[in-house]
Design brief:
This protein is α+β, with helices and mostly antiparallel strands. It contains eleven helices and four strands.
Length: 219
Amino acid sequence: MVGSEVILLDFWPSMFGMRVRIALAEKGIEYDYKEQNLPDKSTLLLEMNPVHKKIPVLIHKGKPINESCIIVQYIDETWKDKSPLMPSDPYTRAQARFWADYVDKKVYDALKKSGTLKGEEQEKAKKEFIEILKVLEGQIGEKPYFMGESFGYADIALVTFYCWFYTFETLGNYSIEKECPKLIAWAKRCMQRESVSKTLPDSKKIYEFFMEMRSKLGL
């Protein structure tokens, strides 16, 4: 695979961009990584994602694919010869899509609120976030990964949030591992994969980035 055939427009702390990087790593695909300055969006980003104007964007042979979960599915369908990310069984594949969709609709906003709200609102937000994680933990159960024995699409959808947990646990003064030990055990299992460990930044680096961003915004 020639690197220039595949280009990724991304921003290093983005848990959504990390999904795409993990999928590309699992498939062993070479690509050109183009870091984006989100406050000053590049002409290429605006051209390739004119609707949402967001990262990540995968450009394959000049054609853009947007939205992280859609990109991961595209990668799996395009490069079928290595490391399948979606289950082969239609029902299990539908379930994987369901759980990835659940993560997209629930986790980001709940995680953010757990560390940024104050007082009673924050306590309520932390409780709601833990309840969401317990639902996900229940799906994993005693299995190694979300859908069974193999690392795949649903795991990729959630595991990229793991490097952000420390930031919001610190801001919110709570412990996810205390409340959801099996979920954290699953995350650590995923981190044993090179595709994940080499993609997810250090949690403290994420914390420093977030605090610097808040400071710049006067929060």
